[in-house]
Write a structure and sequence with these properties.
This protein is an alpha/beta fold. About 35% of the residues lie in helices and about 20% in strands. Helix 3 crosses helix 4, helix 10 runs parallel beside helix 11 and helix 12 packs across helix 13.
């Protein structure tokens, strides 16, 4: 299937004809766009979780046997060199990922037998899997990427890899052979979306095929080796029902969020890093009608909208000559010419805030976006600051009036100190009193203490509002009865709780 194979004899693999350069594997493989040919084993071999249980891999206390790692590396390096000499890797471009893995495994097993390497069955399986991951995937990261309970992967140089599980950051025993190997994996990832990372362009944002967010910062900016950060997305997209199950929001609060998504309210999702803003945005977009034309604008495409009529736009960094950059402002301005019914901005970071507010205020009801802020009031201040950063010489009152006329509701998400994520505020923007924006909380989350295990105890409560300002919009979409029922139920539960 790969073309010619060499014949092995004794303890030394034979050397066949010089393999042709590796062509880029097809999109179906996990390393669909390797940025450069593998020239020798040292470019791709890495040290993963060989022969260790999952708990040991994720346990900071699990010892790393340096001698065993060195022996494993030497064995793997010899086998990898023999593999490269014996197959034509360019033919990977014509094969499915699973078929290529089976072929590689067959040849590696043959090399192990002919070189008389003594290995247990489990050790051989670990080595086979590692080599397949190096050739077709992301090397030592593959076992971590395969786990759905890991939220973040943080690689600090070649010798340290941390993960976030259940809101807690833990050190793993996964590591790369050296800095060159780590950079090789980084190049594979970013080249999949047509980007590059090197000394000339040491900072890069990219994404994996499943939408997971990737950031790479390379030397000389990263002093101790490249830093790779992956924000993983779950294979099964979270829903509002699951957020209720995880106590991120109360059932009544979830019903209010469903209605906000349904009645085309302009929603701004605010929160700190890792608070679940993008996840919450995905949940709200689930209630967009299937006949609406939705256009998303993102730095790296992460949103997973399920509607059939979705156009996804992504920014582009400048090329080697410093030209060709497409900013978020360019995308938002262009999508206004594309007849959108809703505009979804993955994250508002700068002067594009002005363009988003303009869009919300000119017939694109139901538009949504996220930004970094620690409270609803701070989110409004940040919007004003970002518009000012764009060079607009507008009075503060004019900017605030624009914000008030554009934003209907701010939903605040937070990652608490115990690692849990909660929706802490559903706040509507009412209007202006003098030069001050008036807001009103509909739902808030109160922390009441913590249990013996250090987990925070709290409860979502209604503030007693029975007819928020968006009730009229709910009436227009025949959702007023559901809104009133949810708020009355929340208020009744609140009164019962106070009476105990």
């Amino acid at each position: 299937m790969f073309g010619k194979r060499t014949t092995f004899g004794g303890n030394t693999p034979g050397v066949g004809e010089v393999p042709r350069p590796i062509a880029s594997p097809p999109p179906s493989t996990t390393a669909a766009a390797a940025s450069a040919p593998i020239r020798r084993a040292s470019d791709t071999d890495g040290i993963g979780a060989r022969g260790r249980t999952t708990d040991e891999v994720l346990d900071v206390r699990a010892p790393v046997d340096a001698a065993r790692d060195q022996n494993y590396f030497q064995t793997k390096s010899a086998i990898f060199n023999a593999l490269i000499d014996s197959i034509d890797l360019s033919q990977l471009a014509t094969m499915e990922s699973q078929a290529a893995r089976e072929e590689i495994r067959d040849i590696v097993a043959e090399i192990i037998a002919l070189k008389s390497i003594v290995m247990s069955i489990s050790e051989q399986e670990d080595l086979l899997e590692d080599i397949c991951n190096d050739v077709l995937g992301y090397g030592p990261l593959e076992p971590l990427l395969a786990r759905d309970d890991i939220a973040d992967i943080m690689v600090n140089g070649s010798q340290k890899c941390y993960i976030e599980v259940a809101g807690k950051v833990r050190l793993t025993n996964v590591r790369f052979r050296d800095d060159a190997h780590l950079m090789n994996v980084c190049q594979r990832i970013v080249s999949q979306v047509g980007r590059r990372v090197d000394e000339g362009s040491p900072i890069c944002d990219a994404r994996l095929p499943d939408g997971s967010r990737v950031n790479v910062i390379a030397p000389p900016l990263a002093i101790d080796g490249a830093a790779l950060t992956i924000r993983k997305f779950k294979k099964d997209k979270l829903t509002l029902g699951q957020l209720v199950k995880y106590n991120s929001i109360s059932p009544e609060g979830a019903e209010v969020l469903r209605i906000l998504g349904r009645v085309r309210a302009n929603v701004l999702i605010s929160g700190g890093t890792g608070s679940g803003k993008t996840t919450l945005l995905n949940c709200l977009t689930a209630f967009i009608e299937k006949d609406e034309r939705v256009i998303t604008c993102e730095d790296s495409a992460e949103l997973q909208l399920q509607q059939p009529h979705v156009v996804r736009l992504e920014t582009r960094p400048p090329n080697l000559e410093g030209e060709g950059e497409i900013t978020m402002r360019d995308l938002i301005k262009n999508c206004l010419r594309m007849r959108p019914e809703r505009i979804i901005v993955g994250e508002v970071r700068g002067p594009e805030a002005f363009d988003l507010l303009q869009a919300m205020n000119t017939g694109h009801d139901g538009s949504m976006g996220t930004l970094h802020a620690n409270s609803p009031r701070e989110a409004l201040s940040r919007l004003e600051s970002m518009i000012t950063m764009g060079g607009y010489a507008l009075p503060s009152r004019t900017i605030r009036e624009m914000v008030v006329s554009s934003i209907d509701v701010i939903v605040q998400a937070a990652r608490l100190r115990d690692g849990s994520r909660r929706i802490t505020h559903i706040t509507e923007v009412l209007g202006m009193e003098g030069d001050v924006i008036v807001t009103q909380d509909v739902f808030v989350y109160d922390i009441m203490g913590e249990d013996a295990g250090g987990m925070l105890l709290g409860k979502h409560r209604s503030t007693g509002i029975t007819k928020p300002q968006f009730t009229e919009r709910a009436r227009y979409f025949n959702e007023e009865a559901n809104l009133v029922e949810a708020l009355e139920k929340a208020n009744t539960e609140q009164h019962e709780l106070l009476g105990r």
